[in-house]
Design goal:
298 residues; Aminopeptidase; seven-stranded mixed β-sheet; globular
């Protein structure tokens, strides 16, 4: 009998995995939505970046990404976020439509659980429209915790893996707590509410923020040297009096020397009263372009 295995995905797999993910999720959209039209989009069926090789590479670099192999044949992928030693999230799982209905999904879930034997809690979301997914996850022991027409949230608790560690907190109400001169280095926070939290004089060196709701957040007086901001929704965000040196981001009163914009949509962009010394567009000097333009206008 053919055997399913999980192998760590590599960057050279990105294009093939992206094509496979797109084919899988597009077929799901056609089946459950009846269309690939963006007006009928369901982001739990066609998640953001599912058809982007750049997003795939990001997930390989920052998340846990396995390719699903049937003997030597690539048949799918599974993407995880593991927080600490006890908590895991199945971000995405996809299997080539040609290989669905053969029990491979169940094997993958079992392999994931065996790969992380200390994890006691797994969670995930899926579309409420994907009736097949609802049946599948419940068959695998997941229980519904929240549901709307667009989304159903699941959680699975695996008994017998509990470590009993004194520094692990679950289902605790610490609302309004104050931590002063507290060492929380290398701590992990998952599925928790920090709404209204106030962080001041904090060392967050080396921290990682993923799948976070930062809506209406104030970020001020920070040192972000060497940090990376990747795959973030920034609609309506304003940057002012900010220095972003040697890094590709309404800019006002900002120092952007050395910034590069690559493969960006920049329709209707305006550059007003700025120092453009050395600025180039597709290798062409903007200063020279403007000089020619002014001569023609004369």
């Amino acid at each position: 009998m053919a055997q399913i295995t999980l192998l760590p995905a590599r960057l050279e797999d990105a294009e093939q995995l992206t094509l496979l993910m797109k084919r899988t999720f597009d077929e799901e959209a056609l089946h459950w939505l009846g269309s690939l039209d963006s007006h009928f989009a369901d982001y739990n069926i066609q998640p953001p970046g599912y058809d982007s090789v750049h997003t795939t590479r990001y997930m390989m670099e920052e998340l846990v990404y396995y390719k699903i192999m049937l003997e030597q044949q690539l048949v799918g992928g599974v993407i995880l976020t593991v927080t600490g030693s006890r908590y895991g999230r199945i971000d995405r799982i996809f299997i080539d439509p040609s290989y669905q209905g053969q029990g491979f999904g169940s094997e993958v879930i079992s392999l994931v659980e065996k790969t992380y034997p200390t994890v006691t809690t797994w969670d995930l979301e899926t579309s409420g429209r994907q009736k097949g997914n609802l049946h599948f996850y419940e068959k695998m022991g997941f229980e519904r915790t929240f549901e709307t027409e667009d989304e159903v949230s699941y959680i699975k608790r695996i008994r017998g893996n509990e470590t009993g560690a004194e520094n692990e907190f679950e289902s605790c109400n610490l609302e309004g707590a104050t931590f002063y001169q507290t060492n929380l280095a290398n701590s992990a926070f998952s599925n928790s509410t920090l709404a209204g939290a106030h962080f001041s004089n904090i060392n967050l060196n080396g921290s990682k923020f993923q799948n976070i709701n930062f809506r209406d957040t104030v970020i001020a007086d920070l040192n972000l040297s060497g940090s990376r901001v990747k795959h973030v929704e920034m609609s309506g965000v304003e940057f002012s009096d900010t220095s972003i040196e040697r890094a590709p981001i309404s800019f006002e009163r900002c120092e952007l020397m050395g910034t590069r914009f690559n493969n960006c949509r920049m329709g209707d962009v305006e550059i007003i009263d700025c120092d453009i010394s050395g600025m180039k567009i597709d290798g062409v000097s903007v200063e020279e372009l403007l000089e020619v333009y002014r001569k023609v206008k004369q």
